[in-house]
Specification:
By secondary structure, the chain is of the alpha+beta class. It has one domain (2-89): PH-domain like, CATH 2.30.29. Helices cover 20% and strands 45% of the residues. The chain has one helix spanning 72-89, and strands spanning 2-4, 7-9, 14-18, 22-29, 32-39, 48-49, 53-58, 61-66. A 3-stranded antiparallel sheet has the order 3-4-5, with no helix packed on it. The longest helix has 18 residues, at 72-89. The radius of gyration is 13 Å and the shape is globular.
């Protein structure tokens, strides 16, 4: 999702995954294939519109990932916070 011309619009489609080191988006943005990686260690929490999306802020940019499964954004937030704690505490 991107805010353009005073509207929030879909700009791509893909998959967001998380591992102990990064959130990884693989998909399209504006018709181009993209792979974006966001470090878990620099993302203490993910803002979320419960049941709709998660958001990642990096380099003065907001990346919003819409998720079709209503319970999944909350799970991603909790897993992300746990992974962040693991990254800073060397668990």
């Amino acid at each position: 999702m991107s805010f353009r011309n005073h509207k929030l619009i879909v700009v791509g489609e893909g998959t967001l995954t998380i591992n102990k080191e990064a959130y990884i988006y693989q998909g399209t943005i504006d018709g181009e294939d993209k792979i974006l990686s966001f470090k878990v260690s620099s993302t203490p929490t993910l803002p979320s519109d419960i049941g709709r999306n998660v958001q990642i802020y990096e380099d003065n940019m907001i990346y919003q990932f819409e998720i079709d499964i209503p319970w999944l954004p909350t799970k991603i937030v909790h897993v992300g916070e746990y992974m962040f704690e693991m990254s800073i505490n060397s668990i």
